[in-house]
Amino acid sequence: QVQLVQSGAEVKKPGASVKVSCKASGYTFTGYYIQWVRQAPGQGLEWMGRIIPSSGGTKYAPKFQGRVTMTRDTSISTAYMELSTLRSDDTAIYYCARSEGGVVVFLDSWGQGTLVTVSS
Amino acid sequence: DIQMTQSPSSLSASVGDRVTITCQASQDISRYLSWYQQKPGKAPNLLIYDASNLQTGVPSRFSGSGSETDFTFTISSLQPEDIATYYCQQYDDFPYTFGQGTKLEIK
User: What angle do CA A53, A54, A57 make, to 5 degrees?
Assistant: First the structure.
């Protein structure tokens, strides 16, 4: 079955960076996109961007452009999301999710989420 | 960015009730809209895609309709396990934006 397993919780200081991993199994990693969504405590969902594992092509939400980098390692079916220059309002649960490509980009499988806490 | 206005923000209903949530896009998104259910402490779960298509394994009491700018999500007969927050998301154009969510409670 399709599974996306994310790395564990992180605590970071303001100004630091965090890198969250998302390991895929149960399907062909390069056949689907990986998208990243975050959720601040008690708040709604916020789309951050997506990576195409087969090519490495990325698209980021303007809000995160310049601070976020999405990469992948196809040899281990793992996608990564790195967010730099962390602020307290980056405290959130970060989710990876799978979608097909083209116009078929709804999110049909999700990781369990990774809590990132930014605190001095 | 395309703004997604979801209403109501919260809703209280009884078991067996018909429940409706609306989502309005700030511009034409064709039918590129999905609905997700999120239970407390869990990741979201896809229910509806392309405005009206039921995801595999999702109970038939859930349905969606609409196109262009106006969309509706319906639970035909509310069950206790449907208590959750529901989100719409457009994927017509970047960035893919979500509605602010509707928290559904049992009366």
Answer: 65
Neighbours of B9 (CB within 10 A): 13
Q: For residues A20 and A118, is the Cβ–Cβ distance under 8 A?
A: no
Query: Do residues B62 and B49 make contact, with C-beta atoms less than 8 angstroms apart?
Result: no
Digit-by-digit pLDDT tens for chain A (120 residues) are 999 999 999 999 999 999 999 999 999 999 999 999 999 999 999 999 999 999 999 999 999 999 999 999 999 999 999 999 999 999 999 999 999 887 778 999 999 999 999 999
Please name the residues in contact with B74: beta carbons below 8 A apart, sequence gap of 6 or more. B18, B19, B20, B21, B62, B63, B64, B65
Per the rule left: phi > 0, alpha: psi between -120 and 50, beta: everything else, B47 is: alpha
B100–A44 CB contact, under 8 Å: yes
Q: From chain B, pick out residues whose CB is under 8 angstroms from the CB of A37.
A: 44, 98
Q: What strands, in cross-sheet order, belong to the sheet with B4-7?
A: B4-7, B19-25, B70-75, B62-67
| Residues of B in Cβ contact (< 8 Å) with A3 | none
Task: Compare all CA atoms of chain A with the CA of B35 and give the residue at the minimum distance.
Answer: A106
In angstroms, how far is the first alpha carbon of chain A from the final one?
A: 40
| Tally of CB atoms within 10 A around B57 | 8
